[in-house]
Amino acid sequence: MAINFASQSKRPRIRIAPMVLWAVLMLGVITASATNIKDVDITLAVDTQLENDDGVPAHQIDVRTENGIVSLSGSVPHLLARERAEEIATMVKGVRSVINRIEIRTVLRTDDGIRTDVELALLADPATNFFGIKVGVRDGTVSLTGRVDSWQEERLCVLEAKGVKGVKKVISNIDVVQPPNRLDNDIRAEIERRLDFDVWVDDELIDVNVIQGQVVLSGTVGSLAEKKRAFGDAWIAGVKAVEDGQLQVDWFKHNEMRRSRKYDVTTSDAEIRQAIKDAFAYDPRISRFDPEIEVNNGAVTLTGRVDNLLAKKAAVQDARNTRGVWQVKNHLKIWPTGIGPRSRPVPDADAEVAQAVRAALVRNPYVHQHEIAVTVNNHLVVLRGAVDSGFEKEKAAEAATRVRGVADLINNLRVDRSWTPKDDWEIKQDIEFELWWSPFVDQEDISVTVAEGVATLVGQVDTLRDRRIATENAYEGGARKVRNHLRVRYGPDELRP
Length: 497
Hints:
single chain, Histidine-containing Protein, Chain: A, 5 domains, 15 helices
């Protein structure tokens, strides 16, 4: 149930949860009270999500739950798997907090080797290459120092370091340069706007208070994932710290009190355009460019120039995550020649781009063990070879996308592991299970039928976001193919009930 906020497409994968566990989980769903979910049911639900995710070795992870607080322990081969396990737990209904005690038992590497790879990763990423971050490594723990302009830039540097094989921990000593003091009222108003336009946050039950640049979030959200999203939205210019300890996770209260006002209120194209523009300004992958944004009845068209594929994809992601957007047409042109006052020239030779992509794949902890062939023609990257899962195929593409000089990518990687057929009735039950435990959709509003591995979804959801999530849940339940006929209450006219 790990939902990527970029709304990546999901591919069918093998269902490995044993039948006995499935039966116990379904019994827990049925017997759970209306206002409270039993800890044992949460534990089994998290276990199931971990077992059905190709990004974590679930057999090495132990799950315990007490009063809705999930504790993870055990060991995984790299830092990204540790964080993915925690992310998966935050996506389960009823989880209020996660304590992550998972140990990293990664490949043995010298500190010098890790340092070199982290420096190369920061240099290769088109959004971090000009930050000038200094890297230190001791016993696999990476420390980053330097100065950046925003919390988002600091987080991006940390993410790059975590994505290097052999890294056990990342400590950020990066200073964020604060702009001149802003009025607390201005900060609060901007945070409230960001929360309001974020499709992943139901802001009606969230209160924002600001005292001398210190932000305090309080109130109620429906999931731990939503809480983390709100925390990120609060980091804007002028904010010195964000405290979210008073923002409680209560899925039942949230569902009872959630409102449709956020989607009922008419949003003008001008407001949508401004919200997207603001999102671009805080996204270091896009902020140094100036894409043209046109909005017509919720349909967004992006034009202009960027110098890398990562920026083009990020622009679509940010636009889709904006309330009121029904469609995004991405006509951004990639000119990998360096655009903007702080850009550095990208490699002109395709051979250099290919070498940089190969290096990115080798240092990636998910795909470094695979033989992946890379060819480049006029900055178009083609990946060939074989990986073990659709997840690893996506991670290989993601690693290549983060390299300067890549203008487009064709992913011809072959997935050796194919879909394993299941009985239609079992797929149906597993899809309903996935929908029930998702904090983003209401399973009672969705009818599921399955024929020859093809799942058909009928009913209603609130938003296009919910509709996409339902499709992902169906694939996670074991469907070979998904036909989504869900109507959207607050969406384009063509999909409304």
